[in-house]
């Protein structure tokens, strides 16, 4: 089985975050009542004229810059003709020979067999096109219904060279592309809402082969997990075919998430001839150098730059910086917290420690937070300046993250604020010892076990005055004297 080398190329589709659709003014937002976000243009009425959304073009170019592409100063739209009920026009406006972006590269990092690896995945092209509608299959009544809200939502298609050779690489690639698009501010990359999805092309070859094998394509995979499973199954299936002396058929296969298998959908022989031709209703795109420079300069901070800022300016370790940056929501949250309390290392430790621990325990998601970055910053500062103990800070955080609230108020309510009034501490301990003469005598007589009891009495009496650590120190001093 392992005698074959897998060859994998991806086509990633990402919906752009523009307010309106790519060729009309309908809202491009996800959701909405069925067919409530359509007009004659995006529902394909004859005689209507599309007008290109400049922001969509700009976003596609931004995506290109984020992935190290060259931008074509001259770019053309084409009609891709095919019939499907989710496409009322019976053609999709796309780009064939002159896409907006070409020749990019996306570096990936991934782990395979416990070893950390890196690789550069080449991008063949990124082009701008429109999304199709959605079919809702009502099996009960035996009908399919069409919702055209998604028709005309701007989409970029990112096409890689066949540079990947395992599921781990493909998964890392899609994750990296998602991250780049999110940092570039052009796509929210919510896979569960279909705003990013991938077509996966897989073939296998022998190490001695000089040409790639026949490939199959799995379309519209909408989770990282499904991408990995579809690839693994396909490598296995093709390997078994070749082992038996059979041939792989070039075809589109559907991945069945429940069975974890791929099934033949249609073969290339009867695949569509799209009869592409230049779209006559849309102007060609012409960029000047100045315009492209302006778009490039408007790009927000990208992951690599942010990692540099964290390591160089904040002194974080590369590992810590990468953990933060790998999640934009978390990283933005960290930045906001550092604004409120300028101690990046301390805040990073808390986020990568306590917050990540809660997230990994499944107690909370990165997205829904009951507390603000400022509140978290305040808590970290309180712990750093010993207004609360480090241990109590974790309890306070737990409450904050469950119910929200100001850490100082929570600390006060729970009696965890340290007043550091050592005079008061000494006084109270004195009193407790006087009230528990028998226990003190036992302790001094060598029975160390009663220390816990005495400590408990002191802690109860000193709740809200100081931390257990201070109590313990003071108590030990007193008992020795
Ligand atoms: P099409 O126009 O039929 O979609 P492309 O040449 O644009 O074909 O390739 C689509 C995707 O398939 C690209 O991501 C490419 O890297 C990948 N690909 C091409 N040949 C192979 C192969 N032999 N094995 C695996 N992937 C391949
Ligand atoms: Mg394709
Ligand atoms: Zn419309």
Account of the 3D structure:
The protein has 481 residues and is α+β, with helices and mostly antiparallel strands. It is 39% helix and 21% strand. It has 15 helices and 16 strands. It has helices at 54-66, 167-184, 224-243, 289-297, 303-313, 318-325, 328-340, 344-360, 373-384, 390-403, 407-413, 422-435, 437-444, 450-461, 468-480; strands at 5-15, 70-71, 74-75, 78-81, 91-94, 101-112, 115-130, 134-138, 143-147, 154-160, 196-205, 216-221, 251-256, 261-267, 277-278, 285-286. Strands 2-6-7-10-1-11-12-13-14 form a 9-stranded mixed sheet. Strand 12 (216-221), helix 3 (224-243) and strand 13 (251-256) form a beta-alpha-beta unit. The model has no long low-confidence stretch (mean pLDDT 92). Bound molecules: adenosine-5'-diphosphate, magnesium ion and zinc ion. Magnesium ion binds at residues 11, 199.
């Amino acid at each position: 089985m392992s005698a074959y080398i897998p060859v994998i190329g991806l086509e990633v589709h990402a919906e752009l975050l523009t307010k309106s659709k790519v060729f009309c003014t309908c809202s491009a937002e996800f959701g909405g009542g069925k067919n409530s976000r359509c007009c004659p243009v995006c529902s394909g009425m004859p005689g209507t004229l599309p007008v290109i959304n400049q922001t969509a073009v700009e976003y596609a170019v931004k995506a290109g810059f984020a992935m190290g592409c060259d931008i074509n100063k001259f770019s053309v739209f084409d009609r891709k003709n095919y019939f499907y009920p989710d496409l009322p026009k019976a053609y999709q406006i796309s780009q064939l020979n002159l896409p907006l972006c070409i020749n990019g590269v996306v570096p990936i990092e991934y782990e395979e067999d416990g070893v950390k690896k890196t690789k550069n995945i080449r991008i063949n092209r990124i082009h701008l096109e429109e999304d199709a509608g959605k079919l809702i299959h009502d099996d009960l009544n035996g009908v399919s219904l069409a919702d055209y809200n998604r028709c005309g939502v701007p989409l970029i298609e990112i096409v890689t060279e066949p540079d990947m050779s395992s599921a781990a690489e493909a998964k890392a690639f899609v994750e990296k592309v998602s991250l780049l698009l999110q940092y570039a501010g052009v796509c929210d990359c919510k896979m569960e809402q279909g705003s990013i999805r991938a077509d996966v092309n897989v073939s296998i070859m022998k190490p001695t082969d000089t040409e790639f094998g026949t490939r199959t394509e799995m379309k519209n995979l909408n989770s990282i997990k499904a991408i990995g499973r579809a690839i693994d199954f396909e490598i296995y299936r093709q390997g078994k075919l070749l082992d038996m002396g059979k041939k792989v058929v070039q075809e589109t296969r559907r991945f069945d998430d429940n069975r974890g298998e791929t099934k033949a959908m249609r073969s290339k022989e009867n695949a569509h001839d799209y009869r592409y031709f230049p779209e006559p209703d849309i102007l060609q795109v012409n960029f000047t150098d100045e315009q492209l420079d302006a778009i490039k300069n408007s790009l927000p901070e990208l992951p690599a730059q942010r990692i540099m800022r964290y390591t160089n300016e904040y002194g974080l370790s590369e590992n810590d910086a990468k953990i933060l940056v790998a999640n934009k929501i978390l990283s933005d949250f960290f930045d906001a917290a550092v604004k409120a309390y300028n101690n990046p290392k301390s805040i990073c430790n808390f986020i990568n420690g306590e917050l990540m621990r809660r997230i990994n325990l499944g107690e909370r998601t990165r997205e829904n937070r009951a507390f603000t970055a400022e509140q978290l910053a305040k808590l970290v500062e309180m712990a750093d300046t010993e207004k609360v103990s480090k241990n109590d800070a974790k309890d306070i955080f737990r409450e904050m993250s469950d119910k929200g609230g100001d850490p100082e108020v929570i600390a006060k309510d729970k009696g965890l604020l340290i007043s550091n009034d050592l005079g008061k501490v000494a006084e109270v301990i004195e009193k407790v010892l006087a009230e528990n003469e028998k226990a003190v005598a036992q302790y001094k007589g060598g029975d160390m076990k009663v220390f816990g009891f005495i400590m408990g009495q002191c802690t109860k009496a000193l709740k809200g005055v100081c931390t257990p650590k201070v109590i313990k120190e003071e108590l030990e001093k007193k008992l020795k004297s």
